[in-house]
Description:
- By secondary structure, the chain is an alpha/beta fold.
- Helix content is 30%, strand content 21%.
- It has two domains: 6-149 and 342-362, Rossmann fold, CATH 3.40.50.720; 152-338 and 372-386, Dihydrodipicolinate Reductase, domain 2 (2-Layer Sandwich).
Amino acid sequence: METNRRDILKAAPLVLSASVWGANDRPAFGMIGTGLRGRWLHGAFQRLHARCVAICDVYEPNVELARANSPADVKAYVDYREVLASKDVDFVVIATPDHHHCPMLLDSLAAGKDVYLEKPLSMNLEESQKMVDAVRASKQIVQIGMHRRSMQFVYDAKKMVDDGALGRISMVKAMWNWHFRMPLDSSPLPGKLDWERFVGPAPKRPLDPMRYRWWRGFWDYSGGNMTDQGTHLMDVVQWMTNSGPPLSAVAQGKVIGITGAEVPNVFSAAFEFPDFIATWTLNYRSTYENDWSIQFQGEKAAMILDRNGLHLYKDFGESREPWKLREKPELIADKPDLDKPEAHPQNFLDCIRSRRQPNCTVEIAAAAVAGPHMANLALKQRRMVTA
């Protein structure tokens, strides 16, 4: 499988915006995929004054939950192509399992719809290239749901790095720790599921409720936790360092405590970049250092980004006896995360009106998921994968 796709990383200009749509200037959208994340986006776009005119899901209970938070005249569908065929829909929001992202994006572009697509962009590097090419051959605005691209404290961190506050960066450590309970059981699903449509382009299999309940635990439907959370954190790593995707990747992983899953819920990956090394670890079986964080280690200072914000610590400098250092490093900058979660959907709405490129273009998203795709290949093939 070809992995030398570093050319897809070239990013469009970034835009931070804060305008809102007026009461008489409300774009209409169709919501495709109304699971947990989809319902949050469904509510967020309505809070930002967009009109929901269509909802679509293969699982009837999800449709009903979304319908309860929609206008009375909303139309409900099980086939997303009916949403795309509607002349009432200005844009679509796609929050489906990963294996539907590529075909749904391509079909949406062919229907002339602007698209807000959840991350990760793709199932593999080949899909990434196909999606980038299709978007650039169209006139549509496409935003990928990597919301750190619309968070001010991350932009503040970028400026610090660019201004030289860290000095030369030698190591970056990204990690995500949750003690995550995953619903892996094959008891009958309450409510009607269109299993054939859920499977879609994936390998055909008989109905297995376990695969629907936690689809991210199976390679047929996702790149697993490596691409799910990895696309967020690896994007920030590459953005801060101006590096592009890695030159090589190695990875190890295990399925621990979730009988039946295929995709590791505990793993470690290491990436070689031209000027530094990065690691990416995920442990869904421990709350120690809970949640996500990224640590940038530079010669002048170390910077930590996490859900609380930005923290910059002064380096002690070179020492012939570093083992004697006992005091804590000096905190020289601390900026909290004050960003609203709707900032990223708002940026998309602003861009479909202005026709400017959004904060997270398909090129950015393709570059962000490239390293995790390489790591998944390394994991499956038990070898180093190079670009």
